[in-house]
Amino acid sequence: MHTTDAINTRRTAKVLAEGPWTPSLTQDEQEKLSEHLLNLAAKAPYHYKSAERYKIGMQSSSLPFRCYTLDGATCNALASKLEALDPPPGKILNMLWAAELLIITTWLPDIFGTPPEQRIMEPLPFVGNLRNMEHIAATSAAIQNMLLGATAEEYPNYWSSGGVLRQDAARKILQISMEEIMLGAVFIFPKDALEKASQTMPGKLREEGKALPNFSKKVTL
Ligand SMILES: Cc1cc2nc3c(=O)[nH]c(=O)nc-3n(C[C@H](O)[C@H](O)[C@H](O)COP(=O)(O)O)c2cc1C
Predict the structure, then answer these.
(1) Mutate to test the pocket of ligand 1, among 160, 186, 189 (most ligand atoms within 8 A of CB)
(2) Quick one: how far is CA 22 from the chain centroid?
(3) Rounded Cα–Cα distance for residues 34 and 39 (Å)
């Protein structure tokens, strides 16, 4: 699929399953898809390296973001663990049951001063400087690359803020440090998800604000 077609075809598809689905891809195919999308994320432009404090063990990359991938079975396992929480989460369970792959993407804020020994919340608000703005911008570009890549391969997809996945209880299950700030939980659904699902919800703002003169202005000098 041509890039323009992928951009034009990409749309939010929140796929809700009534119970855990068996992945339509083999384990090997799931791994390959995950690797393909991560490679696209790595190709996104980025301006500033992440702070040294984030370069831990294998996670030594200078990229200002980190990606955590969950295959279909792990999404179902996560749903079972989240179901046991009080109160149990809502529609995210239905999406985890449907997902073929989940790529949780965090960005790595520059922080100033000594961080607390333990965090039960993400470091919000973060310092609103140019570097942090550009860390987020780079991470967003990486996420969009993955959405377009999934669209090009005809996998319905959805960029979620993460909801309950941001919270302390889920972060402990996922082992994602609270020092990192979740920017997107990227759901990748099976190719036949739209026919298979009891319900699919579109993005609320799909048609909103698209008229060119309403967001662009020609500069004449
Ligand atoms: C940073 C970001 C976070 C988002 N988080 C959510 C979310 O938590 N829940 C949701 O329903 N949609 C979320 N969306 C998807 C938007 O609702 C969707 O992109 C918008 O309605 C436009 O629809 P489209 O993606 O089909 O063009 C998010 C999009 C972005 C860029």
Answers:
(1) 160
(2) 22
(3) 9
Ligand 1 mean position to 144 CA, how many Å?
Answer: 12
- Determine the atom of ligand 1 nearest the C-alpha atom of 162: 8
CA distances from 131 to 36, 45, 63, 149 (A): 28, 14, 13, 27
- Sign of the alpha-carbon torsion through 21, 156, 32, 163: negative
User: Could you tell me the mean pLDDT of each successive run of 10 residues in the chain, 221 residues long?
Assistant: 96 98 97 98 98 94 98 98 91 97 98 90 96 98 98 98 96 97 98 96 98 98 97
Domains of the chain, each with CATH number or no CATH: 3-214 (3.40.109.10)
What is the pLDDT, as a whole number, of residue 88? 86
Measured CA to CA in angstroms, residue 17 lies from 95, 156, 180, 193 at distances of: 6, 14, 30, 9
Residue 69, phi-psi category: left (phi > 0), alpha (psi -120 to 50), beta (remainder): beta
